[in-house]
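It would be a great kindness if you could assist me with a short task in structural biology. A protein sequence and the structure tokens that stand for its backbone fold form the material at issue. I should value your view on which stretches of the chain appear to form regular backbone elements. The record follows directly beneath this note.
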Amino acid sequence: MARVGVLALQGDFPMHEKRLKNLSCDVVQVRTPRDLDGLDALIWPGGESTTMTRVMSEELRAALTEFCSTHPVWGTCAGMIMLSHTDPDPRVQTLGLADVHVNRNGWGRQVHSFEAELRVCAELEEARPAVGLFIRAPRVMRTGKGVRVLARYRDEPVALEQGNILLTTFHPELTEDDRFHRLFLSRILETHKNRIESTGDRT
């Protein structure tokens, strides 16, 4: 069973927690550096990037930077912003781990929230169409060469992957579609398998 942390500083972390439990994961709410101990992966949920920056201690920021550099991590909406790069703003201090530059609230403010069908990569294709819920969502302005696009809205990337980092501009946890959570779990299992093959450690 995968042991997945959900950063619980602020935002819609209960919905991610519910979805993970439905997929038989052991879920831990993360608020302190110690909460990261023993986790296989982490979800950084949506919310307010300015609030997250304000309430995060320097110790937790350092611990998250280290953890997210070496473990599977998924950032949704504001979580994506915090893992990426954005325009200089003293209110927002991102980790900048993904080679992705975003425009915060690039898809509009709260009143401009919308739901739309997505065009996904072959790995995510299913009989039913993929749907994304965009709430004050960041907009991807540019990406580095190592970034893979997993889904698009119109022609713009809205789900991306770089190494151990998964990013979605929208909120998969607020729809009935769990394919992105299942994708993240598959990445956790792949990481565990690769660790076993490289070290022989089967714990």
Q: What stands out?
A: Residues 179-199 form the longest helix (21 residues).
